[in-house]
Design goal:
Layout (H helix, E strand, L loop, with lengths): L2 H20 L5 H15 L5 H19 L22 H6 L6 H4 L1 E2 L6 E11 L11 E4 L3 E2 L3 H4 L5 E9 L3 E5 L7 E12 L2 E8 L5 E3 L4 E6 L4 E7 L6 E8 L17 E11 L1 E10 H11 L3 H29 L11 E2 L8 H6 L1 H16 L6 E4 L1 H8 L6 E3 L12 E6 L3 E5 L7 E5 L10 E11 L3 E2 L4 E14 L5 E7 L10
Parallel strand pairs: 1-21, 15-24, 16-19
Antiparallel strand pairs: 2-3, 2-13, 3-4, 5-12, 6-11, 7-8, 7-12, 8-9, 10-11, 14-23, 16-20, 17-18, 18-19, 20-24, 21-23, 22-23
Helix pairs in contact: 1-3, 2-3
Length: about 500
């Protein structure tokens, strides 16, 4: 079994395991409860990928807790009673489907602290033109091959196959000769530096005809056997042969048709290690009693929800910081030109701020140029950038419904720009800076991967002799930047507080 086959088999095994977990009688109630909670609070169904991640994380939490409280492992659960071993539904949900990271990262739950994540590479599997079998066609970390031969790989033409160097008689058989070569569409070129020059064409009889100032004599057969005597070119010139061919003809007694260029999908795995996010709270028994008596508030429950939200904030912020660092790294897409927000003399602020959309488009194109995979799907921005976006109006920006009812800690999704770019406002980010990024459709095409391990684990409450109650919380997750080229950043300057809608 090859490494690729082993990885594919492992991926299939992982998916089967998580499907089994989803339907496990002790896990299924938690998955259904999370799905129900998300539908009620977000108005959307939970995807199958999210269900698999929830199932894996709940199972991890059960095992982690069971190691400490084995008697309670897999206790009876129902869809309406989601509390188990200190884990509450809102907290689990806050650390899975409602994380801001879901908008910027591909989520791939892991089943152990040190695990493997997967991403996709595509290789050329045929030698054709200037492409050698094994070269990268589309790399998860590098994007698409940008050469002319790469662009013309899926084409019934061999583009600029090297047959030698300098003034000499170059003889051999074309690398791609599965059938009849079209003798009327053959050219020979030289490459000196970055300059290509045609030095010969070919007659219907397969005879080379020189193109001044070089001299080329010789022939080529329909089977691809050639001999070309070249003179009058630079000694360092690469001699290149281009030709059309009939790709669908059999080339051996087994009726094989090897003329069709092949691609090979390679699934690559990379090791990740989960990091911990610990937090604890202490409170007095007297305060708990007074709050319950005066206001009917369960202090422990409130603290659980609050601390869960704080851990959610930390995870979101940590992941966004990693993306921001990637956007500023040497491997990122080109940095967006800074936008000067000052209107020209007599220019209305509304017309000026629409200009900012051009900067967003510029950054999106930079990502597309770098990766050849996709355009920007999200923006992570500071408060001043968010202010400009919110003022663009309904023709350009669609805010999240009920945003005024959301009281998040830290980053929050505020809406969608141009029906394309999810906007995340972060009060902890530099006010005038924004990061643009591309989130792939699945974890095989990711720029950044978030790997939850334990969504949230809490210890039992412990009250000591001094009447102080203690409770600890822990979440664990791994993070991985796959392709920094999927991110870029930009800035705005001279944004005055007096700029308002309609001015």
């Amino acid at each position: 079994m090859t490494m690729h086959e082993a990885v594919v088999a492992e991926m299939r095994k992982v998916q089967e395991q998580r499907d089994a977990l989803m339907n496990h009688p002790k896990i299924r109630p938690y998955v259904r409860s999370v799905a129900k909670w998300v539908e009620e609070t977000q108005g959307r169904p939970v995807t199958i990928h999210e269900k698999r991640n929830v199932a894996q994380c709940c199972y991890n939490a059960l095992l982690e807790t069971g190691a400490r409280q084995s008697s309670k492992l897999f206790e009876t659960t129902t869809e309406n009673n989601i509390e188990f071993l200190g884990i509450q539904l809102p907290v689990i949900s806050a650390l899975l489907p409602t994380l801001v990271l879901n908008e910027v990262a591909v989520v791939q739950a892991i089943d152990r602290r040190i695990a493997a994540v997967f991403y996709l590479d595509v290789q050329y599997d045929s030698t054709k033109g200037q492409i050698t079998a094994g070269d990268t066609m589309i790399g998860a970390t590098t994007g698409h091959n940008t050469t002319r031969s790469g662009r013309r790989y899926a084409f019934a033409k061999v583009d600029r196959e090297s047959i030698g160097t300098g003034n000499a008689t170059h003889a051999g058989t074309t690398s791609t000769a599965p059938g009849l070569i079209n003798l009327e569409n053959i050219i020979i070129e030289t490459l000196v530096g970055s300059t290509y020059t045609t030095i010969a064409t070919c007659s219907a009889a397969g005879v080379f005809a020189s193109v001044s100032p070089a001299t080329v004599t010789g022939t080529i057969t329909a089977a691809g056997v050639y001999s070309a005597a070249v003179s009058g070119v630079a000694s360092a010139a690469t001699i290149l042969l281009s030709y059309d061919y009939q790709y669908d003809l059999p080339v051996d007694t087994n009726n094989a048709r090897d003329g069709v260029p092949k691609a090979k999908i390679v699934v690559t795995q990379s090791a990740v290690e989960a990091v911990d996010f610990p937090l604890r709270a202490d409170w007095s028994l007297g305060a708990q009693f007074d709050l319950q008596k005066a206001h009917g508030i369960d202090l422990e429950s409130e603290l659980t929800t609050f601390l869960g939200g704080e851990i959610r904030f930390t995870i979101d912020q940590y992941g966004l910081d990693l993306i921001d660092d990637a956007a500023a790294s040497s491997g990122a897409a080109t940095t967006v030109t800074a936008w000067d927000a000052r209107p020209s003399e007599g220019e209305a602020w509304f017309h000026k701020k629409v200009e900012f959309l051009d900067r967003i488009e510029q950054g999106s194109n930079y990502i597309f140029e770098k990766t050849k995979r996709g355009i920007a799907t999200f923006m992570h921005c500071g408060n001043d950038v968010a202010r400009v976006i919110k003022q663009l109006g309904k023709d350009y920006f669609t805010p999240v419904a009920g945003l005024n009812k959301i009281t998040p800690t830290g980053p929050v999704k505020i809406g969608v720009l141009n029906n394309q770019v999810t906007v995340i406002q972060n009060p902890f980010k530099t006010k005038t800076r924004y990061t643009l990024g591309y989130r792939g459709p699945d974890y095989l095409h990711a720029g950044f991967i978030y790997c939850p391990y334990i969504p949230l684990f809490s210890t039992p409450s412990l009250t000591t002799s001094d009447l102080i109650t203690q409770k600890g919380f822990l979440s664990s997750a791994a993070f991985k930047v796959i392709n920094a080229g999927m991110f870029t950043y930009g800035d705005i300057s001279n944004l005055q507080t007096g700029y308002v809608v309609g001015s």
